[in-house]
Amino acid sequence: MEQVGILLFNDFETLDVYGPVEVFGRFPEHYYLSFYSLAGAVISNRHNVSVNTLPVNERTRPIDILLIPGGIGTRTAINDEALINAIRTTGTNATFILTVCTGAALLAKSGLLDNRRATSNKRAFDWARSSSYKVNWISKARWMQDGRFYTSSGVSAGIDMTLGFIADRHGTAAAEAAAAQIEYLWNPDRTNDPFAD
Amino acid sequence: MEQVGILLFNDFETLDVYGPVEVFGRFPEHYYLSFYSLAGAVISNRHNVSVNTLPVNERTRPIDILLIPGGIGTRTAINDEALINAIRTTGTNATFILTVCTGAALLAKSGLLDNRRATSNKRAFDWARSSSYKVNWISKARWMQDGRFYTSSGVSAGIDMTLGFIADRHGTAAAEAAAAQIEYLWNPDRTNDPFAD
C-alpha cells in the first residue's frame, strides 16, 4: 500500500484534487489517500470546499506519491518559502510526484523539476514558465512524464494523467476499467492536447 | 444568487460531487455552494474524503438547486427514511433538482420523480430502476432533463449534465467557456451516451 499525499493550500482548484482522488480511490489495494497542508489546518477554496488536513512536516508515514494541485492560490503559494521547502523535502523522498495545472509551477519553484520536461495549464502557461526557466516546458501535451515526474495540463487533464499513471504502473486494462467505471472518456494519448494554442 | 445545496451521505462518490462543484464554482455571480447532510456531521467516503456539513433540516436559506450524488452509500441511504423525507421536503421547495449516478435512485424513492423521464449509472441501472417503477427510466442518455429534474449517468456524466444545466440557463457560450477553462471536452449532446449497453 502506497500513500498518495495531496498537498493543499488555500484556493486550490477543486477538480485538480478530486479528479485524481476519484481515480486513485478506485485502487484501494494499491493506494490510500491523505490530505496535507503546511499548517495542518482547514484548507478552503472559492467553491466553498473545505478540507481537514494533516501537517505535512509532521507526517508519520512516508508520502510515496506526492500530488500537487493548481488553482488561483498558487499565485500566493509560490511565494510561501516554507511551502516550497516542504515540497522540496517531501518530493525528494517521494517515489513519484504528480502535479495538475499550475501545481507544476510550485514544483518548478522547488527546483526539483530542473532540466525535466513538464507541462501546465494552457491558460496560465506563461506564468507557469516564469516560475523557473530551468524547466523544459512543453506547451503541447495533455500531460508529461519525465522519470518520476508527471505534470498535467489544466484541471480535467489531471484525470487523464492519473489514468495514464495507473496504466504505466498497473497496465492499460486497469486504467481502461477505471475509466469505464466512472463513465469517463479517457484520453490515453498524452500528446493529444485539444487545448494547446 | 442561488444556493446550490449538495446533500451528502456516507460513502458518496467523490467525483459525483466535485465535478458539478467545479462547474458551478465557475459562476460565482449566479451560484454559491453549500454542503448538507441529514445530521450536519462530518461525512466521509472510502476515498478518505471528509466534508463538514450543515444539517439539511435546519437550513437558514432555501436550497434553490438541490444536488444529490450517487455512490455505494446509496445502497444504505435508500433505506434511511429520514433522509428520503428530507429529499422530498427540500426537493419540493427547490427550483431545480440535479442527481448524479445512483443519486437518482434516492430521488426516485422520495416519489418526486414519479412519471418523469430519468437516467442513472449504466452499471447500476437495474438497481436504480428497482428504487421506483413509477419513474420512466431511460437507459441510453448521458443525462436527462424533464421539467425541473436533471438526472445524469455515472460519475463524470455529472460534469456534462452540469454544463448542460448552465447552457440551458445561461447559454451555450457560457457552458463552452467553462469547459474550456477546465480543459474539459464537454459532451453537449445528452443523447450521446458512450456507456449505454
From TrEMBL, chains A, B:
Signal peptide: none annotated. Keywords: Transferase. This is Dimethyladenosine transferase. PANTHER family: ARAC-FAMILY TRANSCRIPTIONAL REGULATOR, THIJ_PFPI FAMILY PROTEIN (AFU_ORTHOLOGUE AFUA_5G14240). GO terms for molecular function: transferase activity. Residues 3-166 form the DJ-1/PfpI domain. CDD domains: GATase1_PfpI_2.
